[in-house]
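note to self: dont lose this again. the chain is below, predicted strucutre after it. 265 aa total, dont forget to put it in the shared folder this time
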Amino acid sequence: MVNIATLVKLSLNLNLLKIESDGRVNTADTQLAISEYDKNAIEEAIRIKEKHGGKIVCVSALTWGPVNKKISDAERILREVLALGVDEAHFIIDDVLDNCTPLETSLALASLIRKLGNFDLFIAGESSMDISNSQIPARIASILDIPFVTYVRKVEISGNNLILQREMPNGIETVEVPMPAVISVTGEINQPRLPTLRQILQSKNKPLMKYTLKDLGINLNAKLMKQRIEIRPVVRKNIIYEGGNLEEIAQKLVDNLIQEGVIKA
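---
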């Protein structure tokens, strides 16, 4: 049996961003969503459970506030996670974590993980779809003092070891690490399945537990992320290429791309 914790980011829904007149993203009014890579992480956890048995627990933290506006949205997203096949969901809600840095988020999540008990494997998406800082899995592995492997595209379990294939710039790398370990997966690892109607109905009865930092016995002096999230308009050049035939038009296009530095001759 393999007990797995999936690290799920409650991300801003990029398809439903609320934009102010000055281009700033209104994060308070923007709905939340599951990051796409996190769906791959959940799917991989389900496949491992189907093969080896065990339990899947979702671990998350609400880092977009205000809490009183986001908590029902967060619960909705985590019910979706449960419908995908996760057995339990546990998440932290605390005003201190609103727009905090990855360090505070990682410390809080690590405290929750220790409270929940021992896990054999932690699976996260390679990055979230909103901020994409890709720091949380690495920081948690460091805090827990266990191995961490990135860009994983295939997972096999042999005894107490993980045999992992990584997507690297110069090809595929195979590594072997002992469990417990933290891994972050790419979108190539699998194709996430859609929940069935039965799974959606069953998710309403699965455990969904909420914690404050006080519940976890920690006191964080959180630093805020100094960032302004805004939409940058894309201005297109609208260049039209004309010529007597396709070859002449194609050559003009290639010449322009070379001049712009997009391609090298």
